[in-house]
Amino acid sequence: MATFLSKEAEALTSFTxxxxxxxxxxxxxxxxxxxxxLFAKQSTGQVMHPQLKNVTVWGYNQAKxxxxxxxxxxxxxxxxxxxxxxxxxxxxxxxxxxxxEEIAGSRGTSPRILTHLHGGxxxxxxxxxxxxxxxxxxxGEVQRVIYxxxxxxxxxxxxxxxxxxxxxxxxxxxxxxxxxxDNFDTGDxxxxxxxxGGKYEIPILLQDKTFSGGQLFYSPxxxxxxxxxxxxxxxxxxxxxxxxxxxxxxxxxxxxxxxSRFYNVxxxxxxxxxxxFYQIGSEGGMFDAPVPVNRILLLPAExxxxxxxxxxxxxxxxxxxxxxxxxxxxxxxxxxxxxxxxFRVGNQVTSPSDTTPKTIPTSLEGGSKPNLxxxxxxxxxxxxxxxxxxxxxxxxQMNGYKxxxxxxxxxxxxxxxxxxxxxxxxxxxxxxxxxxPIHMHLTNFQVMGRTPLNGAAYxxxxxxxxxxxxxxxxxxxxxxxxxxxxxxxxxxxxSNEQGWKDTVAANPNQVTRIRQMFDLxxxxxxxxxxxxxxxxxxxxxxxxxxxxxxxxxxxxIQ
Length: 558
Fold this sequence. Notes:
Layout lengths: L35 E11 L8 E7 L13 E4 L4 E8 L10 H4 L10 E4 L5 H4 L14 E6 L6 E7 L5 H7 L2 E7 L19 E12 L2 E3 L14 E4 L2 E2 L2 E4 L3 E8 L6 E7 L2 E2 L3 E6 L2 E9 L2 E3 L4 E7 L7 E6 L16 E7 L31 E11 L5 E6 L24 E8 L5 E5 L4 E8 L2 H12 L36 E4 L3 E8 L17 E6 L2 H5 L3 E5 L3
Parallel strand pairs: 1-4, 3-8, 9-14, 13-22, 23-25
Antiparallel strand pairs: 1-2, 4-6, 5-7, 7-8, 9-10, 9-11, 11-12, 14-20, 15-16, 15-19, 15-21, 17-18, 17-20, 21-22, 23-24, 25-29, 26-28, 26-30, 27-29, 30-31
């Protein structure tokens, strides 16, 4: 797939790394009535680096307490309770970045917001997706949502999901972290799990940006670009920051919040390996036991919860580095980014005590490993890219449809209608050139495996079937069974992919199979079971793909 590098972006300022300390997002504050109120605002004066002191950004800010400026405050919630959050649109009349009118569509180009709780088990009304909430929220309007009890303690995040503007709104800064806690994963130091907490828990939100004239640069005009890859790593809102740590165990939670860039992260001391990652969780919550890994692949929207033991590295500097992608994972990222964060390990633990975690736990109380039963149905979802005569991307689609596809009677096409409390396998058949991070709203799922595919032969047979030709029968959702085109046995998921997930890497020329149960939470206010509004979307989380047009609706029915 083609990438984008404008003339303005060819000669940009290079920034000296490790001059800014890693910022930690402030905690969101509840008002006296228990509501968390956030305001989507534009501000100037964001310091991302000594050479970037007055960057104009968007963010979710609070009237009380410390405001966020760029991004948003971390929302800390108990997973067994409900919380009301309000997002008010106080953005200026014009967008910070160039808006493509065709992609923005009939909903308009003026700054509008639609905040989605990524990974949430909520009703369609509270989900913040453009199928369930078609009006979205214009300047001056308030999006009021209820986040009900959640199945597991985990790291979620909230970000804008306005139709045709998602890539621009998130790039400008509309994203933030949300933590679900419980009696085991308290976040305290010490805590019942025997893992680090308090100031020894570090969030790392990975993004990449490009700057021109000291300001965020995305595109010189409103042309849609198939992927955006910045030349500067931004971590928690700072350019290649450093973090001062003690020689002891830390808990680090990674979130890839980039537009398109994939990260394959590793810790290194110069040219030598650094500490091992002990991964204790992914998007859907805690594992039942830690998984040791040296590198962690993070596609956009994926999270990884890890323990890192710095105790053997007192007095040394350790870099978080981005390595080459694993075989089979395809992304045309240019320019490359390597160095991300520097950890400066001190020589002593400031508050040693008997409760300080000293060893990696062998099991994690309250954690779980998915073990879903037999599916009642298998659905095949094709991931497709439409090219022009010169071979350049025009748009992307799923099952041959754009997001708002209609039939001949002008009725919205919604082919995927799973029944509540049932288990289904969804197999993503990737016949495009790139790996896609596929995100399911509403559910967490189990990655079952990936099977090699003769993608070219499948694509040709599919095209013939859609014309009513060839030997293969078209399924009701405009696909064909990939069975005759498989090239081998299904390959098991990676060791650290075996927890609950909400985003999965679907590689080209492979069929990626996930298993999910549409088991709606009990009827607390804001939950799907209590609400008749069960309209959701699934999509690629490369934001340029999502906006044009790799996103489809689904509806959970009774």
